[in-house]
Write a structure and sequence with these properties.
mainly alpha; about 70% helix
Length: about 90
């Protein structure tokens, strides 16, 4: 999905805009209910968020997703195993 977003000539379409709040919700996609990072989801989710930022950062700001996004990257940076994804 991130590749489709990166290659989409229309930028961030409304369908992709509805996905953004789901991607920035930490519990479920990023961490388990026990507050443990989900290893298999980290690389593709990071790439998807990078695609949003690269294509149109204004969507992130308009939807008030900047604080949750910073929280996700902060959590990744604190993890020694996933700090490269946070950077």
């Amino acid at each position: 999905m991130s590749m489709l977003l990166e290659r989409n000539p229309d930028g961030v379409t409304p369908a992709y805009q509805t996905l953004l709040p789901l991607l920035t919700r930490p519990v479920g996609l990023w961490v388990t209910t026990e507050n443990v990072l989900i290893a298999g989801n980290i690389p593709p989710l990071c790439r998807m968020l990078q695609a949003y930022i690269h294509r149109r950062v204004s969507v992130v700001i308009e939807q008030n997703q900047l604080d949750p996004l910073i929280g996700i990257y902060h959590r990744l940076i604190l993890s020694t195993r996933y700090d490269n994804y946070g950077l």
